[in-house]
Amino acid sequence: MNRTALALIVAAGAACLAPAHAALAADAPECKAVRLADLGWTDIALTNTTAEIILGALGYEPSQTMLALNITFDSLRNGDIDVFLGNWRPVQDEDYRVYFDDGSVIPVATNLTGAKYTLAVPKYVFDGGLTSFDDLETFADKLDRKIYGIEPGTNKPLLDMVESKAHGLTGDWEVVESSEAAMLAQVQRAVENREWIVFLGWQPHPMNVNMDMAYLSDGDAEFGPDFGGATVRTLVRKGYPGQCPNVTAFFGNLVFDIDYENAGMNMIMTDGLEARDAAEKMLKAHPEKLEAWLKDVLTFDGRPGLAAVKAELSIQ
């Protein structure tokens, strides 16, 4: 037997003895770095950081970059960001339709159902008669013709509403753009002084637990029916599923629920925990989530993912 034949036999034998899961490790080397978009929203802080912790335990190197919503879609299109966990539908469908139509972004999962997203007021304002978008003009003076929103790029339905003077709006209404934290601070000050205020509200969020509030009706044109009833999807950039099938499988599995997100967000916003501490605490309180999230998912080097993550996070 010559050396070449012997080498082929040895190689074939080694291949037969190799662990079966090694053949499944299909992510390209460049997939080790996983770039997530962060909009500064507490829900994304929780979900991004949850993904970050699990990916780190799988041997990947995740990172988060703070971006405005419009820049997030541009960054996915340009290949500068890999994953976005905050595609709220239907509110983003029209404004960012071109990115879906040209294939720049690819939905891989609906990561949350039962969400809502529309204008809200403190309950005492609602009881005072402001119950609908159509009531805004009636109480314009009490509201100082201001609607409080969040980050620029996120408030377009409200900006369009004011510009077109929908719902009978007159005069110079202003959409105050700032951030989630700044908006909620403004709302809290108004509540403490029993002042009138209208603001962008959503669920899941601790505001629904920590504040006596109500959502306005008749905003279907701006935010969709059922008080802006929404689902949230996970998007990846074009080409990512083929290049990084293992990571894509993980994000396809990563599905949350309203109670989970409300509890985790409350730890951040009310209890003052860092996002990582809250995410770790939620993971350890709900180890059953990992079973679904890591189904058929491997570590970066091809080992079974669930066992690796549980060992890294000391979860039984």
Automatic annotation (TrEMBL):
Annotated signal sequence range: 1-22
- Protein origin, superkingdom: Bacteria
- InterPro entries named in the record: ABC_choline_sub-bd (IPR017783), ABC_Gly_betaine_transp_sub-bd (IPR007210)
Pfam families, alphabetically?
OpuAC (PF04069)
Keywords from UniProt, A to Z, are: Signal
ABC-type glycine betaine transport system substrate-binding domain location is 33-284
Name of the molecule in the record: Glycine/betaine ABC transporter substrate-binding protein
